[in-house]
Amino acid sequence: MSVPGLGGDTDFAALAAARLRPAPPRFGEKRADLRGDHAIGASGFPLPDGGPPRIAAVLIPVVAHPQGPAVILTERASTLRQHSGQIAFPGGKMDPEDPTPLATALRETQEEIGLEPGRIRPLGYLDAYLSGTNYFIIPTLGLVEPGFRLTLNREEVESVFEVPLSFLMDERNHELHAREWRGAIRTYYAMPFGERYIWGATAGILRNMHERLFGR
């Protein structure tokens, strides 16, 4: 399937500038109105309990390959306490010294996979995503200059790989899967790619990216 707006990095950057948020979203008190694990299908995951969510930021690194853009994704290390082995974007919790969510996303990306901020051109923000673990995730979309070398932090990242943006932005690859969780069947987005199982918050954010960039 040919996805409009992917004819080159200039076209994609112009599309992103027109469709993305120019400033990061901020948390409000109406959780039910947020995008998140709870808002998928008729039986998404329940809203997280507790106090205000923890703020996190992730980078969606889109590499401007001549043959077509691709998204860098990571496989989290199997030794991590949360979400071990899952497919994720580089990113993490916003530290008090981080001035902006973009600063968090760039710092975490360099710490996790060694991608230097100088190779990343920020294009804008997606809508925030509330995870079932009570993280208010702010995704930043960035265009990456090819020719980089990655150095993985093995304590956090098991491996890194790229997926063509045309695959991720094709609605035919946006599957609704279900699993039993705490005694109920819950639905979530999944985008299987070969042996990689992209699901949960990562797939939900990619779905929002599709809606933002290519929705009517």
Question: What's the gist of this structure?
Answer:
The chain is an alpha+beta fold and 216 residues long.
Can you tell me about this structure?
Helices cover about 20% and strands about 35% of the residues. It has about 220 residues and is an alpha+beta fold. It has one domain: Nucleoside Triphosphate Pyrophosphohydrolase, CATH 3.90.79.10. The protein starts with 8 loop residues before the first helix and ends with a helix.
Which short descriptors sum up this protein?
single chain, 216 residues, alpha+beta, Nucleoside Triphosphate Pyrophosphohydrolase, nine-stranded mixed β-sheet, three-stranded antiparallel β-sheet, 12 strands, globular
Distance between the termini: 18 Å
Beta-strand share of residues: 25-35%
Uncertain spans: none
Question: What class would the helix/strand composition place it in?
Answer: alpha+beta
Number of strands: 12
Helix content: 10-25%
Rg for CA atoms:
16 Å
Number of domains: 1
Q: Can you summarize the main beta sheet?
A: 9 strands, mixed
- Please, how many helices? 4
What is the CATH T-level topology? Nucleoside Triphosphate Pyrophosphohydrolase
CATH top level assignment: Alpha Beta
CATH superfamily: Nucleoside Triphosphate Pyrophosphohydrolase
Q: Mean of residue pLDDT?
A: 88
Shape: globular
Task: List SSEs in N-to-C order.
Answer: HEEEEEHEEEEHEEEH
Which CATH architecture would you pick? Alpha-Beta Complex
